Amino acid sequence: MKKIFLFISMSFLVLAKAQIDPVKYPTFTNIEDALNSKKAVYSMSFREKGLFNLPPQITKLDSLFFLNIMGNNFEKMDREIFELKELEILNVNGNSIRYIPDEIGKLKKLVSFSMNLNNLTSINPNLSRLQKLKVVHFDANNLNVFPEALMEIAALEEINLQGNQISFIAGGINRIKNLKFLNLSDNQINDLGNLSFPKNIKYLELQQNAIVKLPVNLFKAQNLEFLNVSDNHITEIPSEVKGLKNIVSMNLANNKITDIPMEIRHLKKLKTLILSGNPIEKFKIEKIKTLLPETRVYF
Fold first, then answer.
1. Where is the Disease resistance R13L4/SHOC-2-like LRR domain (predicted)?
2. What CA–CA distance (Å, rounded) separates 191 from 261?
3. Within a domain: residue 142?
4. What is the pLDDT of residues 152-206, one digit of tens each?
């Protein structure tokens, strides 16, 4: 059953990529109007039109770089999509699509690909051919492993996999050299092993999983600024936490943490530390506040 929820992204990246200048690139919502336009058509939206298929004439719009078909009744990605060779931004959120066909590899110019709220159980390996891809959204599908195809796209800057059933992540995320934002919240992850993260990672969301222990390599992510691991089963924060030199916000709420190591005092840029919902004694909270005089500590 498709999961329905409100997703609010903390990332500014997708917003930047999805901004379409309405004057320079007017968005058409009717295929006839687009075909009759005397100027090249760059942007097309069929959002919430009740469609089961794309109008086949769309292939005549050979300058199209933005296509939005979210909130329809598509059960598959029509072949016409893959004839749009100039496509850079593709939004197919909120349909009933079960798989991504091999032809996805044809969209060589694709930069942003959003498929939230569909019925995907896996990601086609051919997605790895899209080496210009920077943003992917596969939230609220039925994925049970981290898609290996994504590990082959070094250009990716933002990956959203919230609200799936992912329980396993193979090593290799660190190969996504440009990755800055990773959202794996609301999955079924319990063991991260000693997973390494890309050195450029800035935003990491792992809340609402079943994680017991954070990997030591996580604390080598010196560019990390925002970390959310709330609502897990974490029992301790290791002394290696001092490695997060640029951390600004850390949410550890609703875990099983009983103390915070003295080394947290080295986090000079930390502005917000959330510890509510943990069995930490009050005197220890006061000690933490003393160690972090410039940090707002919530308990």
1. 183-274
2. 22
3. yes
4. 999 999 999 999 999 999 889 999 999 999 999 999 999 999 999 999 999 999 9
- 126 φ, ψ to 5°? -65, -15
Same domain, 77 and 102: yes
Share above pLDDT 90 across residues of the chain, in percent, rounded to a whole number: 91
Q: What is the pTM of this model?
A: 0.92
- DSSP assignment letter at 31: H
* Same domain assignment for residues 148 and 46: yes
Cβ neighbours of residue 67 closer than 8 Å, sequence gap 6 or more: 44, 45, 81, 84, 87, 89, 90, 91
Q: Which domain holds residue 235?
A: 189-299
Residue 238 · residue 216 · CB < 8 Å? yes
| Residue ending a domain, choose from 175, 203, 236 | 175
pLDDT digits (tens, 9 = 90+) for 182-194: 999 999 999 999 9
How far apart (Å, rounded) are the C-alpha atoms in residues 256 and 238?
14
CB of 223 within 8 A of CB of 245? no
Residue 3 inside a domain? The answer is no
Say whether pLDDT at 47 is over 70: yes
Q: Is 263 helix (H, G, I), strand (E, B) or coil?
A: helix
In-domain check, residue 183: no
Distance (Å) of CA 177 to CA 107, 127, 155, 227: 22, 17, 7, 19
238 and 214 in contact (C-beta within 8 Å)?
Answer: yes
Angle at Cα 142 formed by Cα 194 and Cα 155, nearest 5°?
55
Tens digit of pLDDT for each residue in 265-290? Answer: 999 999 999 999 999 999 999 999 99
Domain-embedded: residue 180? no
Give the number of domains in the chain.
2
